[in-house]
Every structure is written in structure tokens, then in C-alpha cells.
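Question thread 4412

I'm putting together a teaching handout and wanted feedback from people who do this every day. The idea is simple: show students a protein as raw sequence, then show them the C-alpha cells that encode its fold, then repeat with a second protein so they can compare. Below is the first pair exactly as I plan to print it.
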Amino acid sequence: MPGARGYFFARPHEHHWASPNMAAFLDRLSEEWAARHPAHPFGLGDISLRNGLAPPVHHTHILGSCVDIYVIHSAGHASSLDDDRVDERHRAAFGAKESDIYEPDYDRERTKELARLICLHLLPDFPMVQFLCDDPEVQAVHEKIRPSKRNDHRDHFHIQLGEAKEARRKK
């Protein structure tokens, strides 16, 4: 994934290989989010490795169809630079512990707005298989948003897309 307005890389670049459908989804999301909140980009987490395999500890992130999108930090965050210290900058931005729904620097209102943008504006064009987030207030935004089984999605959304509508029509 090349860098774009609206998000910063919160994980190493080799973890950002996306399917064409996911890349189109993230391009649209980042452009629409940047137009609304240029000073509060979202953190783009793991997608998959270039060979389509999952990054470490993300067994579902295969073939570029899943993405982690970090919750919004109240102070905003500048886009990450293209170097090997992405994880270090992410920890610096979010503190030793990543910002999550129980931390004072969590921007719940902007995070809910991001979830609303995903569900209400992008869902019609991008079929969603799964949307996990462990904040009950974010879950209330749309019926597609569910809690995770292990309560391990307090600091990010986990989104899995299905096939693009065009690809399904060709079958």
C-alpha cells in the first residue's frame, strides 16, 4: 500500500499488502476521512504480507482481505515516515500502551464517526464479511459491528472484506 492522506502506517510496510478491493476501500476511506479530519488520521495496521500470508499473530490476515484500523487518538497524529521505526513511532504516539477504549487519549466521538463512515458510506460498494471492535458505543453505530470473542480489539477495528461486487458478477 502506498501512503495516502487520511492515514499513517502503524505497522511495518511489509505488512501492508492489500487485495485490489481492499486497496480501493482504503483509498476511498482515507480520502473521505482526510477531507473531514486532516489533523486526525487513522493508523493503518496489518493487512497481509506480499505473498498473501498472514503477518505474525494475525492468522486471519491472508490474501489482503483483512485490515486493522487503529482507533483515533485525541491529539491526532502526523503520518509516519517511510522507514523501519514505524512500531517505535506508533508506541510514541499512543504511549507505551496503545490507545484503547479505556485510555484517556481515546477519541471516542471521532472513532464512532470513522465507523459510521465505513458502514454507512462505504458498505454499499465494499461487501463486508466482518467488522470487530470492542467499544460498545462503536458497536451501536451499525449492526455489522460486533465485539471480538477474546476482547482483543480495544485499540483497533478488524475489518474483513468479501469479493468486490464486480468480481462476483463475472462468475
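The second pair follows. I'd like the answer to focus on this one:
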Amino acid sequence: MKSFSYVFGFTENSFTHIHPPYHKENEGHHLVIMTCPKQVSKDMLKVILFDIDNTLLSFDGCVKESMKSGFEKFKIGTYEEGMFSVFNQINIDLWQLIEKGKLDFEELQKKRWNMVFESLGMSADGVAFEKYFRECLFESAIPENGAMELVKYLHSKYILCVASNGPYMQQ
């Protein structure tokens, strides 16, 4: 079976690229540069597109912080590290339903925390918690380790762009 990139028409370029290390004490590593619909020369690369969540900003870190503060605010118990994995699996499942067109974002907001609390055996108003949770995400920005250094290194060499499937206000 061919890989995702080949199925969608990407082709491997003949030049190599060394990805700069996230930390000064580490070495860079080789990346294969693939482009579509055809190969390009190294000097043709002008733009780098980053996903925001868990690439530049730690969505997971922001979720954990929002859960901790929300549990305190709503007096529903103490946040424990294992609770994140429950949230994460439910969140992934719901976003997959959105991608399949079987759920919209408004429905996700009504269901997500009610499902999480039910799975955790907790009683709380999931819709109210969702509102608070989203406000926390809008206000938080925890960079991934090395992200700032990487952006600083690349900003004078390329046009840097970000993309996300998350709501604009959250980014």
C-alpha cells in the first residue's frame, strides 16, 4: 500500500533539508521534502506552513491547565493527570464525527464535557464547563518546547504561515 503522501500526489524532492533542533544542545535531523504536484528546487521553497495545536502551541498543556482551574472553579473535584486521557479520547472521537459530517461544532460544545464527566463518574454541568473551558483556551498560550526558537530561526529565511482547524478566537 502506498503512503498518504503518494496517494495524494506528493513527490519526493532530490534535495535534503536539515530540520533545526528545538534545543541548542541537540543536532538537527534530516527531513524529506515532498511537494505537489511536482518536484521543486530548494530555492523555490519560500513558505512554511505550521499547524498551531501541539506544534507551536501546546493544546494539551492548555487543556490540562483549563481542566485544573475549571475543576476548582466549579468545585467538582481535584484534577488528576489520568483525566486528560479521558478528555482526549472523547475529544478525538467527537472531532472525527465532525470531519465525517455527523456532528457540528455547536453539538460538540453541548456534548463534550457531559460525556467526559459521565466517563469520569462526576456530576457537573457540562455546557457551563464547556463555556468556561473555551474562555480559558482563548486566553491561554503555552508554547511547545523549542517552538519560539524555531520560529525565530526560520522567520528571516521563509514566509511563515499557521493553520488550524480550531476556532479563530482560540488561536
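Top answer:
Good format. For the second protein you could add a caption like this: The radius of gyration is 20 Å. The mean pLDDT is 86.
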